[in-house]
Known about the structure:
Blueprint: E1 10-11, H1 16-21, H2 27-36, E2 50-51, H3 55-66, H4 71-82, E3 92-97, H5 104-115, E4 121-126, H6 133-144, H7 155-166, E5 171-176, H8 181-188, E6 199-204, H9 207-212, E7 218-223, H10 229-241, H11 252-262, H12 266-277, H13 284-291, H14 302-316, H15 320-327, E8 338-339, H16 340-349, H17 361-374, E9 378-383, E10 389-394, H18 396-408, E11 413-415, E12 421-422, E13 429-433, H19 449-454, E14 457-463, E15 478-485, E16 491-492, E17 504-508, E18 512-513, E19 526-529, E20 548-550, E21 569-574, H20 580-585, E22 594-599, H21 605-617, E23 625-630, H22 634-641, E24 653-661, E25 676-681, H23 686-689, E26 712-718, E27 744-751, E28 755-759, E29 772-774, E30 780-782, H24 788-801, E31 809-816
Parallel strand pairs: 3-6, 3-7, 4-5, 5-6, 11-13, 13-14, 14-15, 15-17, 16-18, 17-19, 19-20, 20-21, 21-22, 22-23, 23-24, 24-25, 26-27, 27-31
Antiparallel strand pairs: 1-2, 8-10, 9-10, 11-12, 28-29, 28-31, 29-30
Helix pairs in contact: 4-5, 6-7, 10-12, 11-13, 12-14, 14-18, 16-17, 21-22
Amino acid sequence: MSSMNALLVTLTNMDGLSDQQKEWRNKDAIEHRDRYKLSESVPTATPTHVVAIDPQHLALNEEEDGLVGIEGPKQKIIRMLMDEEEGSRKLKVISIVGSAGIGKTTLAKQVYLEIKGRFDCSAFVSLSQNPSMNKIFTHILSQVGFKTRRPLHREYDLIDELKQYLRGMRYLIVINNIWSESVWDTICLAFALRKCGSRVIITTCIEDLGSVCRPNFYGHIYKVEPLNDFDSRMLFFRRVFSNEDACPDHLRKVSEEILRMCGGVPLAITSVASILAGQGDMMIEKWERILSSRGYELETDPTIGWMRHVLSFSYSNLCPELRTCLLYLSTFPEYCSIRKDDLIRQWIAEGLVKEKFGCDQYEIAEIYFNNLIKRSIINPVDIDDCGMVMSCRVHDLMIDLIISKAIEENFIAILDDQHTMRGSHEARRFTLHFNRDLENTEQNLVLTRSVHHQTRSISFLGPIQCMLVISEFKYLRLLQIEVYYSNIDSYDLTHMCEFFQLRYFRIRGILCKLPEKIGGLKYLETFDIDDNVKNIPSDVCKLSSMAHLTLPKHAKIPSGIDKLVALRTLKVSTSYDTSIEFYEGFGSLRKLRELELGATNYMSRDKVVSLAASLMKLGSCSLRSLILRNGDLSLEAGDRLNFWSPPPLHLRRLHVFEVVFSYVPDWIAKLDKLTSMVIRIREISKDGFGVLARYKVPCLVFEPLAMPRLQILNIQFDEECLYGRDDGVPCEPAGIEHLTNLMQISAHIHLAHHWMWQTPALPRRKVKHFSERHDEDGHGQVEEEAPVYKKAAEAMLTRATSKHPGIHYVNIQFIQM
C-alpha cells in the first residue's frame, strides 16, 4: 500500500455491483451476483461516504474515543479482585452481569489488561451460545503458555492437562459471554483450587447465572449499569462532533431525544453516533429519520428494540460494497476472533473488492475494514506491535443481524451442529461450523449436482468426519478447512488440482495429502498451510497469481520463487537443502510487503551473501515487515546490510534476530514509519542509541526527561548483579523516578535454578509474596520459603523504585541459565 498515512479517498456514488460484473468472464459469475439480489437491496437512505482512515491512528485512539464512564467500574472490580480481605488467597470469581450492549466485555477487557501482569499466566476467551468445550480449553491452554508435542482431542484430557498446568500458579482467566450453567460447571472442572491468589472473571447477560457462579468460590457479583446522562452525552457528542460544545443549536433537542431512546447503552449510543458522524452534513431531517423506527415499541425491552433498530439502520446506511463485505462476516464462526489479513484476502478472493481511484484491492479492502471499525460495527480485538489492528470481533447483537440478512439475501447457507440447513441450497457459499464436540457423528447432508456446480465457497470448522465430499465441488473459489478432531490418519485433497477457479486455500489442524502438482490453479492467490502438511506441490512457484504463500516449518521450498511476481506475503523456513536460487530469487519480488524467513540450520557463506543481496534489492520496494528467525547469519550478513541502499523506507517492523550488526546502521534513522525493531549489534555509539528500544548494558542510569512515554520496562540481570560487581560498579538501575509514565517493571534474573513469583512493588505498603519452582514436567510447585536470591532481588528493586510513586507492580522471574 502506498502510504496509508497519507491516503485520503472519498468513495462516492458507488455502483460497484454492476461494475464488478464487467470483471467476471463467464455467465456463471453474473448469475452469482444476480442470485444475491444485492443491487435490489439498496436502502432508501442515502449511502454514506467511505473515507480512508489511518489504521494505526485508528487502533491507538479507538479506546480513547469509546471508553466513557468506565474508570469507576473498572477500579471497583479491581478492588474486588485484589483486596487483602480474608480468603483472598482462595480462588475468587467475579461475575459481571448486564444486558446486551451495556459494555460487559469492554469492562472485563480493561480490567484484564490492567491487572494481568500481576499473575503468572492469564487467558481471555469468548464463548458462543453453543460453545465447543474442546475449543475453550484449547484456547485457554494456548494463552497460559502450555505447550505439548501430542495433540489433545478429548475433553477430559484437556481438562486434566489444564488443571495440572495451573496447579501452584497464580492465574487470571476471563470467560466472556457465558450462556448456560452447564458450560460453567464444565469449565470449573479445570480450575486448580490451591490458595495461590488466582482470579476468574465471567461476563453474562443472565443475572441468575451470575449468582450460580458464586457459591463454590469466594467472590462477588458486579452489575453493570447504563451510562448516566452526563457520560451518555459525552460519548455521543465526542463521536459525532469531537465535543459537546460543537453541537449546533438546532440539533440539541433531537440529540437529547436520541439519547433518551438509547437508554444509556454504550452500543446503541456509539452505533447511532457513528451513523450520524458519517452523514457529512447537519440536516435535522436525517437525524429525525433515525427516530422514525417501527416495531421496536412492541419489544419486551424497549432499549434492546431500539438497539436492534439502530443496528439495522447502520447496516442499511452502508454503501453496497461495504454492506456486501459486512455480510461476508457471516461465514466465520459466531463470536470468534477474525484475523484481518484472512478477512481481507477472502474478500478479494470472492471478488467483493476491486481497484478504485488509483488504489489496489488491498488498499481499498483496508479502507473498508477500518470504516467498519470506525462505525462500531466490528470491534478491534488484538493490536500488533506496530499499533495495527490484527483481529476483530462482531458484537453478538450485530452478528445475529448479519446472519439473518445474509440468509435473506441468499448470500450464504449454514450447516450447524444439528445438521440442519439455514438458508437456501441455491446460495453460493456454504459454511459448516460444528461448535459442539461431535466426534462420533458423520455428515449426512445430501446435495444435488446443481448445488455442487454452483457452490463457490466452503468454510469448514469441526470434526473432519462432518466434512462434505469436497471432490464434487469443481468450481470453488475459496476452500478453508480447520479441523479440531479427526478419526482418520490423513485427509485426501489430491483432487484439489481440478479446482481450476480456486483463489484461496487454507487448511489447519489435520495431516492432509496434497496433489503433486497444482499448476492448473492459475488463479490461486492464497496458499496457507500449517505444519500438518509435508508434501508441497512441486510447481507451486509457477502460479503467477500467487499473492500470499505460507509454508510449514519443515517443508521443502520449491524452486522458482522469483516467478511469483504478484507475491505480497512470503512466510517460509529454510534448511540445509534450500537451494541458493531461493536466496537469490526472492529479491526479485517487487510487490512483496511481508517477508518472514526461518532458518533451521547453519547457513553457508554463499547463501548468507545471496540473502543479504536479495534483501537490499527489496529496499526500493514497499516492504512493510521483515522478520528473520533462527539460523546463524553472524556478522557476514550484518556487515553487508550496514550499507543497505536504498533503505526500505516503508518498513514498519524490523525483527532480525540472528543478523549481527557491527553498529547501528545509519539507514535505520531514515525509517520514519518504523514502529517495532529487534536487532543485534556488536558495538553501540552515542548516536546509535537514539534509534534503539532495547539494549543490554552493565548498568542503567536514567536521566531527567528520559523516555517520557515509557510505561513498561523489561530488564535482565546476571546473578552477580544482585550483590554488585567486584569492581564496585553499581548494578541496580538508577534514576527510575525520572521515567514519569512508568507503570510496570519486569526483571529477569539468570540463575542456576528456576524460580518465579510476582511481587507487587507498592512502596510504603506491606505486601505478601510467594515463590514457585518448576519441576521437570513443567508443573508448578509452591515453596515454603523464598530463596536468598528473592530477598536480594526485592531489596535491589525496592531501592530502585522507592522514589517512583506510579509503579503498580514489579514482576521478578529467575531463569535457569
